[in-house]
């Protein structure tokens, strides 16, 4: 999440070994259709009632009211807290808030894709499946590295890691010398 436009408001924090969860509100920074929307980020599993109470509490916050925005996006599983366990609770919550008119993101690992596709969530126009793929040491791979994604049918898409990192200002490579021969 970027730091410019975000006004994080912590609305709940509970440190319990049994069910640690927390929530915060900020403008969505990821490159998705919900970018710029005031978002309730949920870390951990929660009941619909608890999420509704968090939304109400956040909307009453002075910082949120200064922005004159309403929470219109809920990011479930922030920081990879969706683990596939009790998936019916997660799916029921997402479906509930989609019916209420919210945009809903579910952050998941690639291992959970089949599970989520089977739920029918991906057919919902306001559902945003966010596939999170940790890539430790990505910068050390260098400018020649490539990410490749392959679907179940064997179709592949690739992206140059070097070009992506250069665009983000993380990786700098020397400028190529262009020689023009007339």
Could you explain how this protein is built, in words?
It is globular and about 50 Å long. It has two domains: 9-134, Transcription Regulator spoIIAA (2-Layer Sandwich); 136-182, no CATH class. It contains five helices and eight strands; from the N terminus they run E-E-E-H-H-E-H-E-H-E-E-E-H. By secondary structure, the protein is an alpha/beta fold. The strands form two sheets. The protein has a six-stranded mixed beta sheet, with helices on one face. 22% of the residues are buried. The N and C termini lie far apart (49 Å). Helices cover 25% and strands 24% of the residues. It has helices at residues 48-60, 62-67, 87-99, 113-119, 161-167; strands at residues 9-14, 21-27, 38-43, 73-76, 103-108, 127-131, 146-150, 156-160. The longest helix has 13 residues, at 48-60. Strand 4 (73-76), helix 3 and strand 5 (103-108) form a beta-alpha-beta unit.
